[in-house]
Amino acid sequence: MSFIGFIYANFWWIGKIFLKLFKHLESDIKAADMKIYPEAYASLIGFVFLIALIINSVFSITLTILHISGILSFLPSFLLVLVPVLSIVGIPFLLAFILAFIPVIAKYNRSTRLNLESPYLAAYISTMATGGVSPYISFERLAKAPEYLFKEIRKEAVKFFINVKALGKDPLTAIEESAKNVPDRQYKELMLGYAATLRTGGDVVHYLYRQTEVMFRDRISQVRAIAERVGILMEAYMAVVVVLALSIYSIFIVNRALAQAMLPLMSGAEFFLFSYVLMPMISALFIYLADMMQPKYPTSDYRPYYVYFTVSLPITIALAILLTLPFFMPASNPIFAPYRKFIEDITLQFGLPPGFETGVGLSIAMISGLIPAWLATEYLMKEYKGVEFGITRFLRDLVEVRKTGLSPEKCIINLSIRDYGKFSKHLDLIAKRIGWGMPLSNIYEDFAKKVKSWLARITMFLLTESIEVGGGTPETLESLANFAEMIELVEREKRRILKPLIMIPYIGSIITTLVVIILIAFMNNIMSIARMSIAVVSLTRTFLPPIVLNSYITGLTAGKISTEKVYGGFFHALLLVLTTLLTMAISPHIAQVLQFGA
Fold first, then answer.
1. Which pick of 50, 201, 206, 232 has the fewest CB atoms within 10 Å?
2. Angle between helices 357-402 and 337-349 (to 10 degrees)
3. CB atoms within 10 A of CB 171
4. How confident is the model at residue 316 (pLDDT cuts 50, 70, 90)?
5. What is the C-alpha to C-alpha distance for residues 377 and 568, in angstroms, rounded to an integer?
6. Domain ranges in the chain?
7. Which residues touch 423 (CB under 8 Å, ≥6 apart)?
8. What is the pLDDT of residues 102-154, one digit of tens each?
9. What is the distance between the alpha carbons of residues 91 and 52, in angstroms, rounded to a whole number?
């Protein structure tokens, strides 16, 4: 018996209670396509609730006994009331609500993926329909399609295939049942509209084609809406990061400057937790929010992350230790003396006073470490964009050549001599293999292994499928070329809308660096009037590393928000750190001008 089976067999009674308490739990589990019986999952929630209740009750009773016996007599009396209430009532119910919310999150993620895949499903079905293939035959073919193309649609296709072939259901009935159990409006409208059109004797091909156009137009509208939400998210992120950082940094600077006259409001440990723990956690939260808001393709290329974690991050950590740590240790340390001298020389060349060494050293470490990851990302993104752009141009030329009467295979061979940028090398290999008599399905599989772009994969999949089943008629290829151009339009529109947002982090980084350095100089000037002094060098060395680190993380977050991929932020992280370094170089001069003006 499995673990879930054991829980359901022994705790079914409390599962029924939670199933009544969370009325939408059963429908959420079905919509999320979770492979678990709803009552069994409700029993799991009840089991976790009981275990948490028992553990927290024992803890509360033990705490009370220790307090009565005098061992914990120093604890305030209100804790003896507050802790049991939170432990016995709060934590078990909190865990129950979290488990009950998991199907809601899974349902949302599935709906998001379906919403992304549905327009391409419509393009596939309509392209196949122009070649004379019915949608339910297309569904049967999709059940055997690679999972990296249609992750969620393929699941529905497999269910459809089982219902028709194994259970003997009518294809239209199976399609309608599939639409009713899927949490996506576009998918439901496409499938139910197809079934209604077929039942009433309408023009199915025309319906599918028009529905595909509507879905792609709706997709463009969604991109605009997502871009607006992402813009608000970027503004909120920068507002939180910049305002919070400036507030805490200002408090700490003033606190250190007036430490002789007042009790410290913030210790070094609290400053460390804020700068190196809380601020990165806030950025991680916004990265997660951006990931929830943005559409995600079924496949991703993780090669930039491999380069980052195996090359860039180790280089960054090693250089950060060698170039920054010496300035927090005694100057006589012989191990770090050469590195300390190296950074001091560079700081002098920038014309910066003592104290800026830690910021310069950490900036050099991060810039040096980011270069390999940035170069790998640039190469891959240029490859992606070049292949996608070339495929769209190729499809339009293929339509025109096909109208001359040549077979699709012969058209591909003839077009292989033209220049389609990054796609040309793949097209040349495809043409050669067609000449050798290889099946198109095998040719496509080899192409998909070499090209990781999902858009390029799905476009070539539609092409090979349309040629295999429909002979690649001019009408079929025309519709495929139109869909490829719509896809390109959607992606171009998304990049155009999000591009201006990327300037916000640079402005925030410059403001943060300038304000902190100028504030330190200002407080030193004020204290000198009172014939007192502050440790300017120590303060500067303490503040610059977290500012550089914050710029680094802000670049990664901005890349995620603007490009949908964290590795899209490697370049922005590099530029933001460089911007911070240049701002540090000019900030003392600005501080002198302001001080002179005062």
1. 201
2. 70
3. 18
4. very high
5. 7
6. 3-111, 120-218, 384-496
7. 386, 387, 389, 390, 391, 394, 456
8. 888 888 888 888 888 888 888 888 877 777 777 778 878 888 888 788 888 88
9. 7
Degrees to nearest 5, angle at CA 488 with 377 and 126: 130
Residue 173 tokens, joined = 């009935």
**DSSP 8-class letter at 85:** I
CB 283 within 8 A of CB 236: no
Q: Can you count the helices (H) and strands (E) in the chain?
A: 24, 0
Degrees (nearest 5) of the Cα angle 86, 90, 91?
100
| CA nearest to 588, candidates 500, 522, 501 | 522
Amino acid of residue 476: T
Torsion angle of the four alpha carbons 253, 258, 259, 265, in this order, in degrees rounded to the nearest 10:
-60
Nearest CA-CA partner of 28 in 117, 110, 126, 103 = 103
Q: Residue with structure tokens 């055997």? A: 144
Question: Residue 302 pLDDT > 70, yes or no?
Answer: yes
Q: Which two tokens stand for residue 5?
A: 């089976």
- Please, are residues 328 and 541 in contact by the beta-carbon 8 Å criterion? yes
Residue 358: closest CA among 350, 347, 374, 367: 347
Q: Identify whether the C-beta of residue 525 lies closer than 8 Å to the C-beta of residue 535.
A: no
And the tokens for 213? 């156009």
Distance, CA of 158 to CA of 191 (rounded, Å): 15
Distance CA 332, CA 63 (A): 51
Domain 384-496, classified CATH 3.40.50, yes or no: no
CA 467, CA 439: separation in Å to the nearest integer? 11
Residue that is written with structure tokens 């999320």 in the block: 32
Total Cβ atoms within 10 A of residue 231: 17
Integer Cα distance of 158 and 143 in angstroms? 5
Reading the block at residue 548, the tokens are: 């550089």
* Rounded alpha-carbon distances, angstroms, from residue 511 to 15, 28, 514, 584: 55, 46, 5, 11
Query: What is the pTM (predicted TM-score) of this model?
Result: 0.77
Q: Provide mean pLDDT across the span 320-328.
A: 85
